[in-house]
Amino acid sequence: MKKTLIALAVLAASGASFAQSTVTLSGYIGAGYQSDSSAVKGFAMTDSRIQLSGTEDLGGGLKASFVKQFRVNAAARGASDVVGEDSSLSLAGGFGTVSYAKTRGSTLLTNALLSGASLANDVWAGPLTRKSIDSVSFTLPAFNGITLGLGRAETHGTSDHNHSSGGEGTVQTNTFSAGYVAGPLSAGIAFKGNQGAGSSKNEMFASYDLGVARIAAAYEKTSTDTDSKTALGVSVPLGALKAGVSYVSFGQKTYADVGVQYALSKRTSVEVATGDYTDWANRSTRIRVLHNF
């Protein structure tokens, strides 16, 4: 259960009051057994997250909000136990939403990863290649289920975590995106032009909730790559049990994983997941208990 702290400050001397601000603490922590072809097998505390998020009503239809995430190394004790991850600050109103974010680069391929599997050592890093970026974006209000957005992102080179604050990145990416949601159907497209790398990328996805199952597909093509990337996913709810499969292909390289989650309560579940590359040679299996708060 998320713990919400609501602070309402009142200036008694003048009778004026500040806008209401809400801050939410949430996250999860897991423990279990994991086996990875490139890591030690055995029991361990698994990946854990802490998130702070907040919203302030500024009046006149304006709202300010933020999100700050931290990755917790629950298996260790020491100075590097907590590492900062995604952060964002946004201002929203009738005009739309303006947002600044420091996060991992987005790809619409993730919309087709429906297995729900959580595996060790970020095994999706190979097929997704998501680097750390600084970005500014503007999104128009939804109209008849359609949203349109513009953005600019800056990234430094090769690593997911090596972009320090401040300074222009080595690659600047301009993005136009569009999304559509209508009942059980959701879809999106994105066009990205990389100035520093001299390349462009087209992305698209679609998903549909059949009731008995949710299915999704996504496609990505970068102008400098010979091969495109394709992702497929399916998720099937069975009461307290949910099972899913995700698959990504990139030329001769493929990755697939299977995940099963059983809810013991609204906050605690047992998860079993396994995944395997055909090219990156990184097979991973995990059985864990996960608690959300």
Commentary on this structure:
The structure is a single chain. Strands 2-4-5-6-7-8-9-10-11-12-13-14-15-16-17-18 form a 16-stranded antiparallel beta barrel. It is globular, with a radius of gyration of 21 Å. The protein has one helix at residues 125-128, and strands at residues 3-7, 21-36, 42-45, 48-59, 62-72, 82-93, 96-104, 132-139, 146-155, 171-182, 185-194, 199-209, 214-222, 229-238, 241-250, 253-263, 268-277, 284-292. The protein has one domain: Beta Barrel (Porin). Mean pLDDT is 80; it is low at 1-17 and 158-167. The longest helix is centred in the middle third of the chain and has 4 residues, at 125-128. It contains one helix and 18 strands. With 293 residues, it is mostly beta strands. Helices cover 1% and strands 61% of the residues.
Question: How many individual helices?
Answer: 1
Structural class of the secondary structure composition?
mainly beta
CATH topology-level fold name: Porin
Number of structural units classed as domains: 1
Helix-strand layout with pairing:
Elements: E1 3-7, E2 21-36, E3 42-45, E4 48-59, E5 62-72, E6 82-93, E7 96-104, H1 125-128, E8 132-139, E9 146-155, E10 171-182, E11 185-194, E12 199-209, E13 214-222, E14 229-238, E15 241-250, E16 253-263, E17 268-277, E18 284-292
Antiparallel strand pairs: 1-2, 2-3, 2-4, 2-18, 4-5, 5-6, 6-7, 7-8, 8-9, 9-10, 10-11, 11-12, 12-13, 13-14, 14-15, 15-16, 16-17, 17-18
